[in-house]
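Forwarding these from the shared drive since the link keeps breaking.
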Amino acid sequence: MEDFLELAKENTDKDLETCGVLGAFLVLYLVHLRGFVIHLMPFFPPLCNQENGTFYVTTLIIPKQDSTSSSCQALNEEDVFAIQNERSLFPMGWIHTHPSQSCFMSSVDLHTHYSYQMMVPEAFAIVLAPTDSSRCATLMQQFCSLSYGIFQLTEPSGMSVLKECQETGFHPHKEPADGSPIYEHCSHVYTNSNLRFEIFDLR
C-alpha cells in the first residue's frame, strides 16, 4: 500500500485518483500421506478446489488509465490480462486512491468491485485516502500513517443489490432486504510484509 501511494503521489497532488489491479497465486493444501501437507499450485484442478487453499497477493499492476478527482478508468485492459495469464495469477481485486475524499466505497466503486467478486468470491478492494486522518486510530497499527480500508461486498445481500442494479455513474443503492450493509471490512485478509511482490506500472 505504501509503494502504491508513492506511485500515485503525482496524481494525488493533482487531486486525481489512481487505480491498480491485484494479482494473486493460489496455494492449495491437501493433507495426505501420513500427515504430510502437500502444496499444490492450481495446475491440478481435478485434485482439489480453492476452498482448501490460500491466495497470496504478490503482484500489483497499474494500467494505463483516465482519472478524475472521483473516478479512475483502466485502459488497455488486455495488457493487464496478459500479465495475469503469463504468471497464472487470479484477479484478486483492486486498489485505488481517494485523493481528497474519505475512505469508503462509492457506488461506482461497488460496481467495479462486483465484477471482481463475481469472478473470485474472495476478491477485495483497497481504498487509500491519504488526506483522511479520521480512520487512522481504528486501523492496523503497523500502517498507522495510512488511512485505508479493505472492503468486500456482503454475501449474499450486497452482491444481490449490485446484481439487480442497472444504473451507471454515481447513484444511491437501496438497502439490502435483510438490513445488512452492502459492503463491509474484510475479515479474511491479512498483511504480510515478508512476501515478495512485483509491480508493473504500465502508464
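-- next protein --
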Amino acid sequence: MTDFADRWGLNPEHFWLRGKQPEQIVRHDEKLGVWHVYGYPEAVEILGDPVTFASDSSYLLPDADDKAEYAAGDLLQMAEPEHGNLRKQVGHVFSPKAVADLESRITKLAHELIDELAGREAIDLVTDFADPLSGTLFCELLGIPTDDRELFKLVQKSIDSPVQLSTLEQGEDQESYLEAQLAHLQPLRDRLTEHIVERRARPRDDLLSLLIRLRKLDGTGLDDTEALNFAIIMLGAGHLTSTVLIGNTALLFDEFPEQAARVRENRALVPSAIDESLRFLTPAAATYRASTTEVTIGGTRVPKDQMLQVWFACANRDKRQFTHPEVFDPARDPNPHLGFGRGIHYCLGAHMARMEGRIVFDILLDRFPVLRTDPDNPPKFYGAPDFVGLHSLPVLTA
C-alpha cells in the first residue's frame, strides 16, 4: 500500500495509507492548535457523545464570527434537539424506500452516459461519467435545471485547497481555513438563492420546496440563508459523496486486480466491495468536534474548548477493530467502518451513495471488460488534507 499511496501522490501525512499505525492515539498539534484523534474506539466514543463533544466547533476558529452566516442552517454543525427535528423532516428524501424508487432513473442515466462514451479508448471516469451522473440526479431532486450542475463544481473547488484547519490566528498574508472553503462558492450560493426565492412564490414537489416548508422547534421556518446552507450540505451528502465513492472504488479495483476479478465474477460482492472502499480509502477523512468540558480520551487529558480532529480514515485502519486492516478485501464481513460517520450526524446520503455505487459498478463491469488507469495520464486527487477523493480518473477501456 506504500507504493500505491506514494505513486499517486497521496498526502504524506496520511501514514495509515502506508500501512502504519499511529504512534499516539491522541496527539496535540501545537502548530495548528488541534487535537488529532486516530483510534477507532476513541472516534466512536466522541461521535456518540454530542454533549461532551459538540458538533459546532466553529466558535474555536479565529474568523468564525466573520463567517457566521455560512453556519446558519448547517445541519452538520447543528446541536440537538433542533438537529434531530430538522433531520427527521427531511430524512425521508434519503430513506431506503425513497432511494429505492430512484433505482430505475439512476440505471437509465448511467446507461445513457455510457452510450455516449461507447467506442472511446480513453475516458475520464469521474468527469465524463460519475460527476454528470450524480450531478444530473441531484439537480432533478432539487428541482433545478440540469445546466446548474456545472456550478456544483464550485463545491469541489472548495475542497481542493491544501489549507489546514487551525484554531490559531493566521498571518495577514495567510488564507484561513474558512476563507479557503468559501472562496469559490458565491456563484453557487447566488444561484441557489434565486431558486429558493422562486420556490417561496411557487412551491413544487422537490427538495428545495421541502426545505422552505421545514419548521424549527419554535415554529418558524428556515430563512433564505438557512435554507441555502442546508441545501449545500445536502449537495455534499447526495452528490459529492456518490461521485467520489465511484472514483475511489474504480481506482482500488485497478490497484487490486485480483480482488476486482472476484467482484466481476461474483456480483453479490459489489455492495460489500463498496463498503470496503469506504473503509480503505475513506473520502471524508476527518470530522471536527469541540470539547465542552475537560475530558480524557484514549488515556490523554484534553482541556475544555479544544478542537478535536477525528480521523475516520485512520480509525478505519485500526488493527484493534479490523483484522488485517491494510488488506483491501471486497468480501470483508463484518465491516463497521466510519466512512459515513457515526451517531446523530451519520451521512444523510449513505443509502443513496451505496445504491448508486451498486448500480454503477454492476453496469460498468457489464459494459467495460477492461477499465485500467492510464500510465500517461495519472489520476488527480483533491488537495484538502481532510478529504481523500478523485476529481479526475483517466482510464483506458482496451
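Residues 224-255 form the longest helix (32 residues). Residues 26-389 form a domain with the Cytochrome p450 fold (CATH 1.10.630.10).

- D.
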